[in-house]
Amino acid sequence: MDLTFYKYQGTGNDFVMIDNRTKTFPKENIKIISYLADRHFGVGADGIILIENDNKFDFKMTYFNADGSETFCGNGGRCAVAFAKHLNIIDTETTFIAFDGEHFATIKNSIISLKMINVDEIKVSENSVFAYTGTQHHVELVADLNEYPVFEKGKKIRNSYKDPGSNVNFVQQIDESTFRVRTYEKGVEDETLACGTGVTAVAIAMHITNKTKSNLISLPVEGGILEVSFTVENGIYKNVYLKGPAEFVFKGSITI
Ligand SMILES: N[C@@H](CCC[C@H](N)C(=O)O)C(=O)O
């Protein structure tokens, strides 16, 4: 079949977006999903996103990593909102459903502000923090992020977690409320240019370990700048918002 797709990116985290309201996309076929994501033989992307109808919400977002595994994606969620606006499903605000539950989002120009799930699964260890922000994230401070071997160290730490593993975020503090981040993503099995659930975990990890007192954190990543804000109630991080650009790149069609 000929598949029409749209390519979007959010701070360089890139996605093949598919309007699957007709339910024609063979989403059980992992081979097709990884073919679409393949940068040499397919379209090329960190992940594949389906937009589908839902009875209760504006739409349903389904996210697959490049290897076909399913989870939630923060930057993908922001791109899904931009795509739903392009499809005229929503206007400037929306509530949609995804792998980790319900999300609210607003759009202003091409800046999407996405409400993340409440974060209560946080484990502070001596040199790292683990947080579940819609998916699994390991956070670790390093002295020199430029020189850090993100791929080698990230892969090792990713595999030290039991199935399904963890994404791994390496962080360098720039000032009181700014933290630079590089992320190794499971499911892509490489460093990506940005990770939304990752910077969300970083902001929370830096706050809970007293590296910052701010609840509005700026997070420069390889593909741009993201922002995370939150409130804290009884140790639970609530009203967590991930904010940044989400942009259309091109539209195409491919035979699958
Ligand atoms: N880039 C994403 C996270 C995508 C999912 C991740 N690779 C996983 O398997 O947990 C983001 O922006 O959050």
Describe the structure.
- Strand 3 (47-52) and strand 4 (60-65) form a beta hairpin.
- Helices cover 18% and strands 46% of the residues.
- The strands form 3 sheets. It has a 6-stranded mixed sheet. Strands 6-7-8-17-16-15 form a 6-stranded antiparallel sheet, with helices on one face. The protein has a 6-stranded mixed sheet with strand order 9-10-11-12-13-14.
- The chain has 2 domains: 2-116 and 245-255, Roll (Diaminopimelate Epimerase, Chain A, domain 1), CATH 3.10.310.10; 122-241, Diaminopimelate Epimerase, Chain A, domain 1 (Roll).
- The model has no long low-confidence stretch (mean pLDDT 98).
- The radius of gyration is 17 Å and the shape is globular.
- The termini are close together.
- It has 256 residues and is of the alpha+beta class.
- The protein binds the ligand N[C@@H](CCC[C@H](N)C(=O)O)C(=O)O.
- Residues 13, 65, 71, 73-76, 135-136, 167, 185-188, 192, 195-198 line the site of ligand LBFN2T5F.
- InterPro entries: DAP_epimerase_DapF (IPR001653).
- The active site is at 73 (proton donor), 195 (proton acceptor).
Describe what is shown at a glance.
The protein is an alpha+beta fold. The chain has 4 helices and 18 strands. Helix content is 18%, strand content 46%.
Brief descriptors of the model:
4 helices; 6-stranded mixed β-sheet; Diaminopimelate Epimerase, Chain A, domain 1; 46% strand; 2 domains; 6-stranded antiparallel β-sheet; 256 residues; binds the ligand N[C@@H](CCC[C@H](N)C(=O)O)C(=O)O; alpha+beta; globular
